[in-house]
Amino acid sequence: MTKTDPHPQFFGYGSLVNLATHSYADPTPATLTGWRRVWCHARTRPVAFLSVEPCPKTTLHGITAGVPNANWDALDARENAYLRRDVTAQFKTDTAVYEANPEHTAPPSTGHPILLSYLDVVVSGYTSLMGDDGAAHFFATTHGWGPILDDRDAPLYPRSRPLAVKTRDIVDDAIAALSVLVRPAKDARLLVDAIRAS
Q: pLDDT tens, 5-49?
């Protein structure tokens, strides 16, 4: 990526698609080819999180948004378990996508749960941006599903937002179709204890 470009941008494919979670400039629907969305696990996080990995035949829908004055510090801090990857070749300006840092990832057998509150935020972003088709695209192009922790009533995800009934139903129906194990809310206490102990 050119260090002199004063107006770089990022491609968002997860929570950054939800514009209520940030205020980056000029968010615009966009696509990224050659990458797929995956759930990752890390030794430093007790919950699963979204990342991308190279996959030649996959196209992801998401957003691009500007990084004012090329100041990546705040976004790098938000995406602290990730590395910036240069995908400028697909865009008209310098563009990065965040991929989980392989030095911190753990195998899928680690089994860290996906926070339902996090999933709700991501899908809310896709439905707001692209309607029901956006949510369908998200579920169809996301891999590595594992157990989900139902923390919806007491969200553990720090950027959680109020959830529309329609979006809740979309998420719940998709989880059921995927046959993903959903752990009850009472198990959230174990996760909170794990976070405090780390």
A: 667 999 999 999 999 999 898 999 999 999 999 999 887 778 899
Looking at the fold, whether 22 and 93 belong to one and the same domain comes out as yes
Measuring CA to CA, how many Å separate 9 from each of 5, 19, 29, 173, 179? 10, 15, 13, 34, 36
Same domain, 158 and 128: yes
Q: Which of 54, 72, 106 is the last residue of a domain?
A: 106
What is the rounded CA–CA span in Å between residue 166 and residue 163?
8
| Helix ranges restricted to H, the chain | 73-78, 116-140, 165-178, 188-197
pTM listed for this prediction: 0.89
Domain boundary (106, 138, 157) is at 106
Q: Based on the domain organization, do 19 and 95 belong to the same domain?
A: yes
